[in-house]
Amino acid sequence: MAVEGMAAIGAAAAVGITAIATAYAQAKIGAAGIGALAEDDSLFGSVLILTALPETIVIFGLVVALIATGFI
């Protein structure tokens, strides 16, 4: 029972920490991206990709959480 609880805490930490890191990265990238778009509209595609890229960190955290809890 205690092992399952520790796995759940580890899974929550894996998703929570990666979500906070992603939010921080997207805030910085988004602010810089808006500044770049204000000067040059042709950068929209690059800014969109760079804004979406940190989301992969949360997906990796979710995979780690699923492995830790035994779903995968």
TrEMBL record:
Membrane topology designation: Multi-pass membrane protein
The organism of origin for this protein: Candidatus Nanohalococcus occultus
Ranges where the V-ATPase proteolipid subunit C-like domain occurs: 9-67
Assigned keywords, A-Z: Ion transport, Membrane, Transmembrane, Transmembrane helix, Transport
Predominant cellular place of this UniProt entry's protein: membrane
Gene designation per UniProt: ntpK
Family of this protein: Belongs to the V-ATPase proteolipid subunit family.
Subcellular compartments: Membrane
Protein name: Archaeal/vacuolar-type H -ATPase subunit K
Alphabetical list of Pfam families matching this protein: ATP-synt_C
Keyword Iron-sulfur in annotation: no
Transmembrane residue ranges: 43-68
